Structures are given as structure tokens and as C-alpha cells.
Amino acid sequence: MSCQKQAENKPSTQDSIAKVDSVNNVAAHHAKNSLDYIGTYKGILPCADCEGLETIVCINENNTYNIKTKYQGKGDKVFEQKGTFSWNKEGNTIILDDVKNGPNQYFVGENTLTQLDLSGKRITGDLAAAHILAKQPSENSELETTTEPKKTVDLNSRMEAQTVVKKVNPAIGKATLAETKWRLITLNGKVVIQNGKKDFFLKLNSKDGRFSAYAGCNNLTGSYVMPSAFGLTFSNVAMTRMACPNMLLETLFSKALAETEHYSIKDNILKLHKGKVAILATFEPAK
């Protein structure tokens, strides 16, 4: 399936000059009517629980899109979704109308699409450049198809998508942020001594955006949100009301969750971060 651009008559030189000189057209100068945004864009986006998300976005002139994604390190499955898009009021960002549970806004630049965060804002910091997809030459502006059609998963079909996700998640041999039971090993730079038979842990559930945790006395629960790639915040933290002799660790653990801004996973070690330097807690997969 290729990106479609409808045939159009080329304006004369005089018409072009008149448009540039027109005050009204200058005021309306934005990506929607000034950039050749129709085409295919490719790149590798950051991925929360994989090595990278190979992404191909095809934008058509009839306000439809086609996206193909592949999770690096998780097999050869290619996920495909089709739908319609609209523009924001400024005319510089397209909104994928059918994407509800993830980033669905892309800022349109000169030969680029920049994925925005869940609130429609540009992602800043070290990962900013990793969210830019590059437009492909017109002769290559055709969505690649897998050589084995059965490996392409139609995300518009909920039943098919759910079946495949169960097969490829999590990656074999790699711990993922959600669904892994993480055992607490350090808190505020100090090694945590596990007391009792029950591990001090943190576990995120991707199905409902909730988490559960334990640090020696009460059970903790709450919500979590990933506002951007590797962004992570916890909220609505609640706990049971047991009184224990020493609740300092639990109090510090709860405070660390409340202060978390983003995370990293390397060599199966999860780190919760505040700012660019501070490491609030580290975890390893529970055995």
C-alpha cells in the first residue's frame, strides 16, 4: 500500500509570487498548506520494554494514515494500523484519530514527523532527537510489506492484536517494566536488607495502569503513567493501615515513588530516577 497524493495543477510563477506577497496567506502559513507532508516516514522510536520500535508512518492526502511497527528484540511480528487523521487548530500537528492508548500526535516539519508526548508537547532532553521520523524519497514512499503475510498483525482487529501480544510479550530473557515483579535492592543509594520471607517489591500492571508494592509492613497500591518514552510517574498511592515496629523503609519507599520522574532498564536492572542525576531506587527481577 503506497502513500497517495492526488494530482494537482501546478500554479504559474505569477500566482506563486502573488501568494507569497499576500498578507492573508502569510498569516495562514503553516505545515498543512505550505509543506509537502504527504509521504512515508521512517525511524526507530524509543521503546519502554524493547530495544527500539521500528516505525513506518504513511500519510495520505485523503486524511488517512497507515502505520507499521516492529518491536526490536521481540521477534519478527509487524503490527499494522490504519485510520484517519485530523489537524490541530494551528495546522502544524496531525492527530491520529484512531489511536487512543498511546502517543497519537506528530508535529509536521520539513521532511520530518516528530512524535509528541501524550499531552501533545515536544519531548525534550537526550531522547528528543529519537522521536523524529524522516521522510523517505518519493520513489521509496511505499509501506514495506513483510515477506510472510502471516507475521503482519492488524491492530484494527482487536482479537488478532490481543492474541499476538500474548505471544511476543515479554521478550524472552529480558525483564520489562510492566508485568515483571521487581525486587527492591537499593533505596536512596543504600542497600536494602530484606527481612522476612516476602520480597520488598514493585510490580506494574499494563492492563489497568495500576501498580502494587511492598516494603516490609503495608501493601501499597496506586496508579502509574508514562507521559513519554522512559517517563514514569506514580500517583494516588494508598496503603493498608497495619502498625509495625519500624516503618521508616516503607515511608522512604513511598516517598521515592512519589518523586519518580523517569526510569531506565539496563542489564535487567530497573532504576527509578528524579531529574538527570538522582537515582531513587534500583530493582532486580524477583526469582
Automatic annotation (TrEMBL):
Top-rank taxon: Bacteria
Transmembrane stretches, start-end: none
Record PANTHER family: HEAT SHOCK PROTEIN HSLJ
Name of the protein in question: META domain-containing protein
DUF306 domain location: 175-283
UniProt feature coiled coil, ranges: none
Pfam families to which the protein is assigned, alphabetical: META, NlpE
